[in-house]
Specification:
This protein is an alpha/beta fold and about 375 residues long. The protein contains 13 helices and 12 strands. A 5-stranded mixed sheet has the order 4-3-5-12-6. Helix 2 packs across helix 9 and helix 10 crosses helix 11.
């Protein structure tokens, strides 16, 4: 090496050190960044903005569960224009939260490593006066859905009931609120049990001056109709899982994340406050409802929180292969490959939590009775 080249190499190395110092982090031999405190920097991409749906991860940050395992986790907001599995595949996040059918439909170099929600939270809501008591009654109605892959269960439910989504109903592109439904522009609207449905119960009925109640509506629950698909799951980068350091990091990330969800099961009010402090746009009352409803989708988890149940996975795949989207194409054209999910890392995480005395099944879990407040305040 010439003297000039040696000087250049020294200058570049010095610049790297200075840059790392200025940003408060350094680079390890494996290429991952660490904080000034020596914690490994990790990013988690959400599929929506910070709210009670993701309280377990927010709690894991707030309670220091990640930090205790050597991780500094940054939680990235999602939105309508953000596809978590794409962000993950492009290397812009280390892990992502995404619904299983959405992730499988694109299958962008992601491997499911934990299934957080054991049940579907999607409902189709109608005013009781519409007399929509099941999927078959949607025929001839204006039916709202958000699109972006959120409609798969709705389409599966209509198909099972003998309704052609493209011909037998009037599909309406629904905004991520209930305004069009309340204006009665939509007869049956899509709503999550933990979010949009609560927004209805937090709204005054103009006819009575009091808040709407569950008696004002009828709901179709896709769990009851046999077409529920797996929703919130944690995904890792398939290619990076070949690296032993990323594998170790994944176990740590899962261990702390699952502990965060166990914490929110047992500390509803505290997790409500954590979620509000993290920047949730809707109020404390709404977040309390949301976390309580999300807990119902997770607990109890007889096999341990995050376990990927093969029967539920196979059911989701089968429904996706037999359900057509709005364009008439099936959600999935073939079975996912062998790398689509793995139970290796969640099993190790559950073993560690069990050894530490954390209740990972929630066998005695009972939901709280949360009273809706106007505007979710």
């Amino acid at each position: 090496m010439t003297e000039t080249a040696l000087r250049l190499r020294t200058v570049l190395a010095l610049a790297t050190v200075v840059a790392a110092t200025l940003t408060g982090c350094s680079t390890t031999d494996s290429g991952s960044e660490t904080t000034a405190d020596g914690l490994t920097k990790v990013t988690l991409q959400l599929q929506w903005f910070k709210q009670g749906q993701f309280a377990g991860y927010l709690a894991a940050v707030d309670q220091g569960f990640y930090e205790k395992l050597g991780l500094s986790v940054e939680i990235l907001d999602g939105g309508t224009d953000i596809v978590p599995q794409t962000v993950l595949a492009q290397g812009q996040a280390d892990y992502a939260v995404a619904w299983v059918p959405k992730a499988l439909a694109s299958r962008e170099a992601g491997t499911e490593i934990a299934q957080i929600f054991q049940k579907s939270g999607t409902k189709q809501v109608s005013f009781k006066s519409e007399n929509i008591t099941g999927p078959a009654a949607l025929r001839g109605k204006t039916v709202g859905n958000w699109g972006y892959g959120n409609e798969f269960e709705l389409f599966a439910g209509m198909t099972k009931a003998g309704i052609d989504p493209a011909e037998d109903v009037t599909l309406v592109q629904q905004q991520f609120d209930m305004n069009a439904f309340l204006a009665k522009d939509i007869a049956a609207a899509q709503a999550m049990s933990y979010n949009e449905y609560a927004q209805l119960l937090e709204t005054k009925n103009p006819a009575t001056g009091k808040l709407y109640t569950a008696d004002d509506f009828t709901t179709i629950d896709w769990n009851d109709e046999g077409v529920a698909m797996l929703q919130d799951a944690l995904w890792a980068n398939t290619e990076k899982l070949k690296d032993s350091k990323y594998q170790d990091q994944t176990v740590k990330f899962l261990t702390a994340s699952l502990q965060g969800w166990a914490f929110c099961r047992d500390n509803l009010d505290k997790c409500r406050d954590i979620t509000v402090a993290a920047g949730a746009t809707l109020g404390a009352g709404h977040q309390q409802w949301q976390i309580n409803e999300v807990n119902k989708l997770i607990w109890p988890s007889p096999a341990g929180i995050g376990t990927i149940d093969k029967t539920a996975w196979d059911r989701t795949v089968t429904i996706a292969k037999n359900t057509k989207n709005a364009e008439g194409a099936t959600v999935l054209t073939k079975d996912p490959d062998a790398e689509a999910y793995t139970t290796e890392y969640v099993t190790k995480a559950l073993d560690q939590l069990t050894a530490a005395g954390v209740d990972v099944t929630g066998a005695s879990y009972q939901p709280t009775q949360v009273t809706p407040t106007e505007g979710g305040r």
